[in-house]
Amino acid sequence: MKKIEKTARLIEKHDQLFACPICGREIKVEGNTVRCPGNHPFDIAKKGYINLLMQASPEDYSKELFNDRHTIIMAGMYRQMHIMIAEQLKQVLSPSDTACLDVGCGEGSHLVQILEYINKENMIGVGIDISKDGIMTAAKYYEDVIWTVGDLSKSPFQSKQFDIILNILSPANYHEFSRLLKATGLMIKVIPQANYLREIREQVLDEEKRKYTNDQTIEKFRKHFPEMEKRRVQYKWQVDPVYQEALLNMTPLTWGKDKANLSLEEVTIDLDILIAKSTQM
């Protein structure tokens, strides 16, 4: 089956999740197009994704960056984080159908890795990002997930449809999270801790700029999800020389920097996983 056909069938099976980005009404699949009762059509791309972005957005990240991120994530740099999230979700998932949305999914590898560790048959993953290049990269490597180009601040989904929302190392929109999350849903946000990628920071940043605290981000999350829990995952990842170039290229820390003399034997992964149940119960 072609990617466009497989994507059309996935969207048709889970069309209750989606809302027309123009009028907010439900959508239905017609061949390789989705359409709402207001006759607003959106074509499903041959490469296996749907673009529901109303206006093209300037691309901050390149295709090369997304490919480098895919390489690094699949090499296992974030594996312990993926496992920790998957184990947390396994404890709370019900046997019924489950919808998991990754907001700001980039090239999709975080979502796919977590879904694979959970290994739940009746679970659909949906990834949304404003970057068309990111979503195209996700669709290139991964099937069985609905990849969506869309506005994260006004996402093209119906309210109260998602059991899980993931927001991994990506900007948040708490109004949308609250709108999309089911009353019994779970919110998981991953943010850097003080020592994240310390080995790179020490080589490219002035000493004062190396300092980082996530206190404000945590407090903002707590404001919207007062009963939050926080789990810290911290470890060293050994950098195989074959991955060094991709690792240095994938992080904004090195943008505009001379990478010729940078050398990495290991990097520190230091992340906080913020977990909260919906506040609408």
TrEMBL record:
Q: Which GO terms describe its molecular function?
A: metal ion binding; methyltransferase activity
The 23S rRNA (guanine(745)-N(1))-methyltransferase N-terminal domain covers 18-53
One of its GO biological process terms is:
methylation
**Does the keyword field hold S-adenosyl-L-methionine?**
yes
This one is known as 23S rRNA (Guanine745-N1)-methyltransferase
Q: Which residues form the signal peptide?
A: none
Q: Could you tell me which Pfam families the record lists for this protein?
A: Methyltransf_25, Zn_ribbon_RlmA
Q: Which InterPro entries match?
A: 23S_rRNA_MeTrnsfrase_RlmA (IPR052939), Methyltransf_25 (IPR041698), RlmA_N (IPR048647), rRNA_m1G-MeTrfase_A_prd (IPR016718), SAM-dependent_MTases_sf (IPR029063)
Name the CDD domains on file.
Answer: AdoMet_MTases
Q: Where does S-adenosyl-L-methionine bind?
A: Y78, E107, G108, Y196
Gene3D superfamilies documented for this protein: Vaccinia Virus protein VP39
The chain positions of domain Methyltransferase read: 101-180
Protein keywords: Metal-binding, Methyltransferase, S-adenosyl-L-methionine, Transferase, Zinc
Source species, domain of life? Bacteria
Q: Where does Zn(2+) bind?
A: C20, C23, C36, H40
